[in-house]
Amino acid sequence: MNTKKSQSVGNSAGNNAGNSTGNSTGSELVRDYLATVEREASALPAERRQELVADLAEHIEIALAERPGGSEREILRELGDPRTIAATALQESGFGPGAVPGAGAVPGAGAGEAPGRRSPAWLVVLLPVLAFGLGYLWVPLGFALKVAGAVVLFRSPYWTKSQKWTGFGLTALAPSLMNVAWFLFSYPNDPSQTEYWTAIVAVAVVTVAGAGWLWRVRSDANAGQRQ
């Protein structure tokens, strides 16, 4: 999400709260809260700062949707002081005192929880390999693991957007297209065992190469900034 989108989400969340409480202060509360976070986190790279604000706005919107009659002030209080959230994000991203490089979750200082938890880098790399191996034993399982791998990859803080799309193409899209091409063009012609195993090895090479590439380009030191 970008800043403009996060502001529209915040306005939507605020309007929902304003309608439920009978006044127009809701949107102002959300805008002020998000603006404070963005201002206090100005030392973060622009992309990471926009993501932080967008994640918070989405968290607020979801909380409002789950509590139709809830108070926006209460939700913001539970989320935590915006200055504390910004300070924690700076520390986790390596831009503040006591920094802990490699942590990428958005903090929820009031409740001690993050709006979204991040999976470890090794899980992102392991899932497509498991999808390849287990998919030949049971196709639905392989498909489910590929979907899970894609979701975890795109939510991970260890790669940039372009790296995520490249990794997705190598570990999920390309192997799937190769399998589809095999069943459409080779399988109906009664291929030999050599051709069959050659196709499997080719898919394995692409999948493992893609997973290996993701592992090599992951960024532990800047995990908090990458998205």
Give the SSE layout.
Blueprint: H1 3-21, H2 25-40, H3 46-66, H4 72-79, H5 82-92, H6 121-135, H7 139-155, H8 161-186, H9 193-217
Helix pairs in contact: 1-2, 1-3, 2-3, 2-5, 6-7, 6-9, 7-8, 8-9
Task: Characterize this entry briefly.
This protein is mostly helical and 227 residues long.
Strand content: under 5%
| Principal-axis shape | elongated
Mean pLDDT: 75
- Model regions low in confidence, pLDDT < 50 over at least 5 residues: 1-25, 98-117, 221-227
Classify the secondary structure makeup into a structural class: mainly alpha
Number of helices: 9
Largest sheet, in brief, is: none
Terminal residue distance: 10 Å
Topology as H/E string? Answer: HHHHHHHHH
User: Count the strands?
Assistant: 0
Notes on the structure:
The chain has helices at residues 3-21, 25-40, 46-66, 72-79, 82-92, 121-135, 139-155, 161-186, 193-217. The longest helix is centred in the C-terminal third of the chain and has 26 residues, at 161-186. By secondary structure, the protein is an all-alpha fold. The protein is built from 9 helices and no strands. Residues 1-25, 98-117 and 221-227 have low confidence and may be disordered.
